[in-house]
Amino acid sequence: MSIVDILSFESGLETALVERIIRNAPIRYKTYQIPKRSGGFRTISQPAREVKVLQRALSEVLLRRLPVHEAATAYRPGISIKDNALRHVGDGPILKMDFKDFFPSIKPHDWAQYCKETGALTDLADVRLTTLLLFQRPKGSRVLRLAIGAPSSPFVSNALLYEFDKRITGEVARLEYPKLLINTQKTTRITRKYGRRVTGLTLTNDGRVSIGHERKRILHAQVHSAAKDLLDSDQIAELKGMLGFVNSVEPQFLDVLRRRYGHSIITTIQRFEPPPPPLDSLE
Questions:
Q1: Could you report how far apart the first and last alpha carbons of the chain are, in Å?
Q2: Is the pLDDT of residue 46 over 70?
Q3: How many folded domains does the chain comprise?
Q4: Cβ atoms within 10 A of the Cβ of 3, count?
Q5: pLDDT at residue 177, rounded to an integer
Q6: d(CA 210, CA 21)
Q7: What pLDDT score was predicted for residue 220?
Q8: Using CA atoms, how far apart are residues 10 and 3, in angstroms rounded to an integer?
């Protein structure tokens, strides 16, 4: 069964339509920029709806099933930022490094080589078609590359970097693919003295993972405002989400809030449901 037949079955689209979508997929992206926290802008490429449907279908039938190294915690179902932070508890100083242009650095030949070495896909036609579906050709460029914004890109990168993750401690210099460069501007070494943060969470010196002092200060202020009935429905909904985040990372802080503001206030926020939109907005 060809990859086109599989995607046709998974998506409910005719095989001829699936083939047509795939052939044009590399140029069917909407590109825009968002500001980076460190300054400058990040280019996001959003695939067209029909391309996204097939990318998600391919992710389900193939990409999600490819092996991912246990050291990789990003983009994995069931793995949270807390799980990632817990791996660094008690490890002393933390060295943070970033790959420059990570997704765009991954090219079709990396995918083809991966398929050849692992047998993920053995039919050359399937390799070519999945390449067209998974990789973008930016406007004005002849080069296909992995797009920031495609739902399939994280699964591709995790799979292709399996060998990299496996060998990084001793053999990273000899690994031939993908061609990645360290972003020296994002390389930092963080010690206990200055507060260690991993994926937005704070590692305490007593071996715990915390949401951090600043988030706690903001939450105290927001819950206090909620208790005084000073928040609108959107703000309460946002606060509800934050309390859910706290419960997943540092549930003991919820107990602090309950003792400070009362169980009923916290429960009311957690059970809050936003009002339905007015009928005239649905017309």
A1: 46
A2: yes
A3: 2
A4: 22
A5: 52
A6: 46
A7: 92
A8: 10
User: 157 near 76, Cβ under 8 Å?
Assistant: no
Q: For residue 61, give Cα distances in angstroms to 1, 15, 22, 114, 173.
A: 13, 16, 16, 17, 33
- The string of DSSP codes covering 21-81 is HHHHGGG-EEEEEEE-TTSSEEEEEEEPHHHHHHHHHHHHHTGGGS---TT--TT-TT--H
Helices and strands (H and E) in the chain: how many? 13, 11
Amino acid letter for position 187? T
Q: Which two tokens stand for residue 135?
A: 């990789």
The percentage of the chain sitting over the pLDDT mark of 70, rounded to a whole number, equals 73
pTM above 0.90, yes or no: no
Same domain, 81 and 220: no
Q: Decide: 153 and 59 in contact? Cβ < 8 Å.
A: no
> Same domain, yes or no, for 151 and 233?
no
Q: Domain span at residue 262?
A: 211-270
Look up residue 242 and give its amino acid: M
Closest CA to 250 of 132, 129, 81: 81
- Strand-pair partners of 197: 202
| Cis check: omega of the bond before 178, within 30 degrees of 0 | yes
Does 196 map to a domain? no
